[in-house]
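Sample intake sheet
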Amino acid sequence: MLEVGQSAPEFCALNQDDIEICSRDLLGKWIVLYFYPKDMTPGCINEACDFTAAEPEFDKLDAIILGVSPDDTKKHRNFIEKKELSITLLADVDKKMCEAYQVWQLKKFMGKEFMGVVRTTFIINPEGKIAAIWDKVSVRKKKTVKGEKIEILHANEVKEKLEELQGK
């Protein structure tokens, strides 16, 4: 299992516009790298829309948001257009990134076992080291605070952790 403090696995993958994005070209920036199962599914839509809504705040923290799934670039383009996303999505069709980041795992759903992406988010610091990890992410959690139910967005948790890591 990958751990905080380790060097993040290097990657190169095509984005939604068929442009190769490589980790080596992002050194010096904070990276929010989130893995999700599939474009246009409910949890993945919420997560992508939440990160898009929070993107200006991540920009202020000099962080780039990269979503990764096994979908191809055409599916990513359709997802971005339909949901008006502004974040970058990487196509990991051969699942090399998913395997390198250890998020391609055996899953169970309705009594069936299959291999798939376990929703996971990493913050990678400007030196290329893993600074934070969330595994088995709940995109939106309900929590009761002082008798009031509130919704906690994963994107906000990530932003708050990034601010903490940067001492802001």
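Comment: The CA atoms of residues 142 and 151 lie 5 Å apart. Residues 30-165 form a domain with the Glutaredoxin fold (CATH 3.40.30.10).
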